[in-house]
Specification:
Elements lengths: L1 H20 L6 H27 L5 H21 L9 H28 L7
Helix pairs in contact: 1-2, 1-4, 2-3, 2-4, 3-4
Length: 124
């Protein structure tokens, strides 16, 4: 999870610097909230994947899909369905919402691949 936080901080800093350097009007507090919410939801997804792996249920992929679905629903409910945010250009708002979502999704895919490729422990 430390990797996720480091990547989110680096990408978030680049994202913020880009917004500020081109004088684009976007609420920086909202950008911070976007990254925090995505990081928290990705951490919960990570915990679910690891829990499924520890319980040997072979449902890690389903935990990943459910986590992605929930994360997308939360992002839509909190940010994209808000009329205040989408009063400008909705495509531009979507890009700012999608960047942190995509970063956390890539990290979750990496975690899932690592978990699925890990050798199974056999008890003898």
């Amino acid at each position: 999870m430390v990797q996720l936080l480091a990547v989110m901080c680096v990408v978030g800093s680049i994202h913020l610097f880009t917004i500020l350097s081109v004088d684009y009007i976007f609420n920086t507090k909202l950008l911070f909230i976007l990254y925090v919410v995505n990081a928290l939801l990705a951490c919960l997804g990570y915990i679910a994947i690891r829990l499924m792996f520890a319980l040997k249920t072979q449902a890690e992929g389903f935990a990943f899909l459910l986590g992605s679905f929930i994360k997308l629903g939360v992002m839509y409910a909190l940010f994209l369905s808000n009329d205040f945010l989408t009063s400008g250009n909705p495509k531009e708002v979507f890009i700012h919402v999608f960047i942190p979502y995509a970063i956390s999704l890539i990290w979750e895919i990496k975690v899932l691949a690592t978990v699925l490729n890990a050798p199974q422990k056999t008890t003898s």
